[in-house]
Design brief:
The protein is of the alpha+beta class. About 30% of the residues lie in helices and about 25% in strands. It folds into 3 domains: about 1-85, RNA polymerase II/Efflux pump adaptor protein, barrel-sandwich hybrid domain (OB fold (Dihydrolipoamide Acetyltransferase, E2P)), CATH 2.40.50; about 90-160, no CATH class; about 180-395, 2-Layer Sandwich (Chloramphenicol Acetyltransferase), CATH 3.30.559.10. The longest helix has 18 residues, at about 205-220.
Length: about 400
């Protein structure tokens, strides 16, 4: 008797997904703890696990198909693979930079199998690097290729050679659901909110000195690096408590003020920008915030974020400085009314009292919904952030 593989619940307000990739083919054995397909929603990419151990008998929803929650993706048959069951030949592994295949056929087959078991982020990294999967030694769980394996095997990509025809000079790729959703939300934020941005600059001298003093002991004790993000999260919470409109949202004709502080932290991935949420950040220590951010960033890069990881944030922080941005105007993450943008730390001359000194300075930006946040509140918010980061002891003593 065949067991149906159905589209699982995709979370609140998500009713449809796209079949991104089948990790198994008809005739291949499947296990309950081994993913057989990947679905892409407008928020996350998730793996589908079979409800029973057996053989993948048939695929009913091909790659690229849109499927609603509860739809049947395929069927699992009991028993073992019959001798007469046709097994499709494995897809050829990507060629290395030299354009020549090397290594025995067995190794190439193993590499393809490890590739199929790996997550979407890893597969994309392999594709972009032009690596031969037969030359990558998988060290991940279940024989999967990890990001570290790809980095270790990476070779310089071949130089692009422009083609003589239009078809070779241009490539048309359908937008993923995640990318389409990002575009829709960003455009909706501009169309709906009365969005403005205000700026300030922060002298990072004290924050950098604090991190330098406690860097090694902090990492040794807590197993995570002490970064600036936890300082900014704590500073933002101080400011949000004093200016609750920045932590609020509009719902119909009402303003909903939030007395909890779930801080979204923007993370860039190969698939696009996602904003996982650190829950009840006001109740967490600096170490717990850094640990939570590190764990969420790993899940984001591996394509393992859940709907719960991305839902319910009250305020967002994004750090364009990791990419070298000196100044930007971040776009609101609806329905939130505020987003804080961090930027690159740049050493430049500033006036300190009656002297000119070279200081590590960072521009910060607050984009806000002017429908519920006044200019005075926005400016005061950034001033409070500036005070707390320039003198971190203010956070500890609540002054």
């Amino acid at each position: 008797m065949a067991t149906e593989v159905k589209v699982p619940s995709l979370g609140e307000s998500v009713t449809e997904a796209t079949v991104a990739k089948w990790l198994k083919r008809p005739g291949e054995p499947v296990a309950i703890d081994e993913p057989i397909a990947e679905l892409e929603t407008d928020k996350i990419t998730l793996e589908v696990y079979p409800p029973a151990t057996g053989i993948l008998a048939e695929i009913l929803a091909e790659e690229g198909a849109n499927v609603p929650v509860g739809a049947v993706l395929g069927r699992i048959a009991e028993g073992v693979v019959a001798q007469s069951a046709p097994l499709p030949a494995p897809l050829p592994a990507p060629l290395p930079a030299s354009g020549k295949r090397e290594g025995p056929a067995k190794r190439e087959g193993e590499g393809q199998l490890a590739l199929e078991r790996s997550g979407p982020a890893v597969r994309k990294l392999i594709e972009e690097a032009g690596l031969d999967t037969g030359k990558i030694a998988p060290t991940g769980p279940g024989g999967r290729i990890s990001k570290t394996d790809v980095i270790a095997a990476r070779v310089p990509p071949p130089s692009p050679v422009p083609g003589p025809t239009t078809g070779e000079r241009e490539v048309r790729v359908r937008m993923t659901r995640l990318r389409r959703r990002i575009a829709e939300r960003l455009k909706a934020a501009q169309n709906t909110a009365a969005m403005l941005t205000t700026f300030n600059e922060i002298d990072m001298t004290e924050a950098m000195a604090l991190r330098e003093r406690h860097r090694d002991s902090f990492e040794k004790k807590h197993g995570v690096r002490l970064g600036f993000m936890s300082i900014f999260v704590k500073a933002a919470i101080v400011a949000l408590k004093e200016l609750p409109a920045v932590n609020a949202e509009i719902e119909g004709d009402d303003i909903v003020y939030k007395n909890h502080y779930d801080i979204g932290v923007a993370v860039g991935t190969e698939q696009g920008l996602v904003v996982p949420v650190v829950r009840d950040a006001d109740r967490l220590s600096f170490a717990e915030i850094e640990q939570a951010i590190a764990a969420l960033a790993r899940k984001a890069r591996d394509g393992k974020l859940t709907i719960e990881d991305l839902s319910g944030g009250t305020f967002t922080i994004t750090n364009g400085g990791v990419y070298g941005s000196l100044m930007s105007t971040p776009i609101l993450n609806p329905p939130q009314s505020g987003i804080l943008g961090m930027h690159k730390i740049e050493r430049r001359p500033v006036a300190v009292g009656d002297k000119i000194e070279i200081r590590p300075m960072m521009y910060v930006a607050l984009s806000y919904d002017h429908r519920i946040v006044d200019g005075r509140e926005a400016v005061t918010f950034l001033v409070r952030i500036k005070e707390c980061v320039e003198e971190p002891s203010r956070i500890l003593f609540d002054v």
